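S1.2 Input.
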Amino acid sequence: MNTRTFLMTAACVSILAFSITAMAVKSVSKFGKEKPVTIEDFRAHPKDVEGYHEEWSVGVYNEGTYVGIDFVGSNVGIGDMNGAVRAKFEYDGKTKVVKCKATFDDDEWSFSKTGAFYLQFGKNRLEGDLKKLKATVRCKKLSIDLEFENLVPPLKPGSGVLKFGDGDGEYNIVFPSPRSRATGTVKADGKTFPIDGPGYISHSRTTMYPQDQIRRWMRFKSINENHTIVMAEMEAGKPYGRSRNGWVYIIDSTGRLISSGRTNFQYDGFIKDTKSSEGYTIPRRVRFVAVEGKNQVTGVLRMSSIKKISDPTADLGAIKRAFIRRFIKPKSYRLYCDYKINVKTEAGEKVFEGKGEYTFVYVNP
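S1.3 Output.
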């Protein structure tokens, strides 16, 4: 899920911030045993609750280019059950960036309820099955046509579902295309660019407001011609005892090595953001372990420098931004790192090393 969109869902709920009183700590379920992915996991599942937010994120990763698309359905932030499409294309060594965004009323976007999977937002579309998907974007600045042929079957960490409290809400995550070969074209700046690279598609859904559900996120993603490594951990909000849940999956040329929702992340070497009135701190080292049956992954991310510190509300209008920041204080830290990851399977041991970046995102202090 795009960080800014996720945090914007807090815009309409300021009054609720005063309703949280002292209460017993509520539970958050674990991902549990893995369940097979079906086409139903790809579909939109809109809920008539104020915290509903659903997103399909698409990416193609090359050495000098990047294509990113987000398809969004939401009850908040962009309007009741409205939709949005965001697209970005980076080229010339990622020094040039072209972006576009369009919003849609609830009667201007649609989705399949049975049969083949599709999402339709005006002239923009995401469709496909368990083996192949197609993404289309049409806007003034960008025209994108991409096909994703899965190199491994879709997956999710365990059940792909975290349940909060006694029916308070859920968080759902599935990867319709955990690693694929993406081909197609992008038209931008009066030119046509051929695209051929490793692809990725995720689908997430929440039915709770972020300031209630999440205190902070940690995310790491390394996708190149040799491998796909994706991991994340969320720390729940105070009403849920700041429970922590995460996932890791790793795929290389031989296929899926591990996919697990049984993880343990440890952080140390914290440094304080002296410009943050909330006293936010960021870890200079992330260590983790995850298991799936007899397979195990251990690894470490060591921060080398800070890439960017940003306020996800910075692009909002002054009035809306001031309104949001009365009740939450979001901040995103993108950190360059060196990583070393060991994977042990019955076939042997593999080591992945390289340079990347991880993101620490605070929703609330």
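S1.4 Remarks. The chain has two domains: 31-208, 212-365.
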